[in-house]
Amino acid sequence: MKRIIFQTTIFILITGVSFLLILCQADGYSDAFYLKFTTKPQTNLILGTSRAAQGLQPLIFDAILKKEAPFFNYAFTLAQSPFGAVYLNSIQKKLDTTKTKATFIVTVDPWTICSETKNPNDSTNFREVELALANTENVNVKPNLGYLYHNYGGKYHQILFPINSKMYLHEEGWLEMNLRTDTATIRQRTLKKIKDYRYNVLPKYKFSSLRLQYLIKTIQYLNKYGEVFLVRIPVSEKMMEIENELMSDFDFKIKEAILLSKDYLDLTKENSSFTYTDGNHLYKKSGAVVSEKIANWVKSK
Amino acid sequence: MLFNSIDFALFLPIMFAVYWGIAQKGLRLQNFLIVIASYFFYGWWDWRFLSLIFFSTVVDYLIGLKLGKESVPFRRKMYLWLSLFVNLGFLGFFKYYNFFLDNFVAAFSFCGLNIQASSLEVILPVGISFYTFQTLSYTIDIYKRNLEPSKDFIAFAAFVSFFPQLVAGPIERATKLLPQFYTPRKFDKNLAVDGLRQILWGFFKKVVIADSCAQTANLIFNNSGDYSGSTLVLGAILFTFQIYGDFSGYSDIAIGTARLFGFKLMRNFAFPYFSRDIAEFWRRWHISLSTWFRDYLYIPLGGSRGGTGMKVRNTFIIFLVSGFWHGANWTYIIWGLLNAIYFLPLLLTNNNRNHIEIVAKGSFLPSLRDAFAMLTTFVLTVFAWIFFRADSVGHAFSYIAGICSSSIFSFPQVHPITTLIVLFFFLIIEWIGREGNHALEKIGLKWNRPGRLCFYYVLALVVLLFSGQRQEFIYFQF
Predict the structure, then answer these.
(1) What is the 3-state secondary structure (H, E, C) of B294-310?
(2) Across the strands, what pairs with A258?
(3) Which of A76, A191, A294, B403 has the CA that lies 20 to 30 A from B411?
């Protein structure tokens, strides 16, 4: 029996090690979040939802602001990272708390302080409590096997043979989307997205005072380590209409957060100056322009 | 606890080490360990239903003892009925209460009588259909005097709750499995090694085949209105492999695991998609359930001994009951009915035992006649599975209507290339290994050792690479 146990153990070990070596190959093509959890703790953070994840490019911030430490995009999606205990907890793990002169770009919009739960302040049923940020204990380790085990969205062979090559997550956390940009395709995607937000998302979302409190808590926490700049990223006019229906007094609602931060930049006044992949997310070239605008604005402060 | 989870990957080696570590200390201790481990295994999913298993165990143990002692036929019959009432009562309540209630309400309202009845939110205990049938076989066999009642409660409790096959079978006969709990187990190297091979193949079937097919099959079935006829055909075929990979994969892991502990469980699948007619298919699919119905329902009803009318009636009864066993939904009943209709011509023309031997035994390729027969049987099976998978009878009919459209001649709208590639290799391995008890039983045995180990290594690595999004076993819901 000892011989069988020994042989089986060796077999399992060899197979297991081979598997781990394959998992170590996970890169920016493997998953939209994985690399965000594999760096060391970061100093200068870009925070928010998918608008920031796809729109704001840390390398542009680095080039303009020339900070000692590079910028890192730690923004996820509306489902994963609206303001709340889960996101704040994850930011606390990701932040290098040994530095105190950091810059934080915190992107805000009405959705990030709303909830789709029946009671908008029922934090136990917030969607993010069962998603990646809540399930990832260690956010600064490579390879991050805990993340891959609990949250990897596909089958592991996709690490070797990625199926979604339109998406690439850069080391600095920017999620580059290489989608078709012909007018017809953009119009189709935009129509679909707007329809989804109008008929599926908007009726469910309600203002959550708890989420607003967490936005304030997040800013208060970040203020201890540097300066916080609040930014509202541009969206298409159609999406803006929906957002105004959801919360026409958004700036008024977040006034306490604005007062706590260094400054607030609302870029939705320039919505028509940019192109979007689906009405909700900036196309990468526009994202570069918006990143540059924000970086120059921060520099001027 | 799911077989395809980290929890089980830790549980199994620990249990194995402790089990064989205490082998010298006596059989009762080993059996007791099996009971504890089995309750732990089941309780990991939901501890509240452990009381149900324990209650069934106590009731059947006591009834077994009474049946053993009692000689008055009337009293013996009463004890048997008590066992049937308790076991089927639990099953009926947890599985069928809402079904009957809803259908009674619908029937009354059809007759113009509106009655108020509220459904209960009942959670179906995992595996209740399996262990209920297993314990029933015990009391029925004692009643028929085919088995002596167990006087060892621990051994009996271990028989009822034996963790490898507790939640999804194979549904063992007391006459076969219970004596194994009375006999000291000695570690058998060959049995254990073959068990490991069977576990590996079971994981391959579940993780690589079933879960891959499930992704596309679920997508197509859940949005069937959006897809062309050819895509719907693809969805039905993928579900056909999903359910086979899922259920036979579970059985392989269960049988292989039992072998590691020195137990021999009955075979549950014998390459059913290589069947040449539907009768052969039913001798090869979910064998433990089919034979259970044969022994405890078909034969007591008269089997094939009566006239044609009796044969037809009994055939319809077992297929309908088999369908209903799978779930409280008309889709399963129609699935059973369809299989009865497929089976009937063979029975009436006495052709239901034409294909007892393995197809193309000893040769690599089947004859054209066999290939055509297998293809025809496969097509019939795929068609029946549409009812099994559909959410409702209406969904099944709209799915079939979608297939029967001109779009069946278009190219499918989804292209699960990876799934089709692994299915191709899977079918080759199953075909080559079809003469064994499981596909890996004989494949590679004549190869040199490094070649064989490389083959197992590749299979194991592929299983790991295809894991990721874990899915429950389909048969847990039954």
Answers:
(1) HHHHHCCCCCCCCCHHH
(2) none
(3) A191
**Amino acid at residue number B341:** I
Least confident of A257-261, B95-99, B225-229, B472-476: B472-476
Q: How confident is the model at residue A223 (pLDDT cuts 50, 70, 90)?
A: very high
Domains for chain A: give ranges and CATH numbers: 25-300 (3.40.50)
Please list, in sequence order, all residues whose beta carbon lies within 8 angstroms of the beta carbon of residue A275, skipping any fewer than 6 positions away: A181, A186, A282, A283, A285, A286
Report the residue of A157, A158, A159, A164 to disrupt the B interface, i.e. the one with the largest count of B CBs within 10 Å: A157
Phi first, then psi, for residue A217 (nearest 5°) are: -60, -40
- Spatial separation of the C-alpha atoms in residues B303 and B441, rounded to whole Å: 35
Helices (H), chain A: 2-23, 50-55, 58-65, 85-94, 132-135, 145-151, 157-160, 183-196, 209-223, 237-246, 250-253, 255-260, 284-300
For B136-165, the pLDDT digits (tens) are 999 999 999 999 999 999 999 999 999 999
DSSP states along B405-452: SGGGGSPPS---HHHHHHHHHHHHHHHHTTTSSSTTTTTTTTS-HHHH
Complex ipTM more than 0.85, yes or no: no
pTM value is 0.86
The answer to whether residue B286 is catalytic is: no
> Which tens digit of pLDDT belongs to each residue from B43-102?
988 888 899 899 999 999 999 999 999 889 899 999 999 999 999 998 888 777 777 777
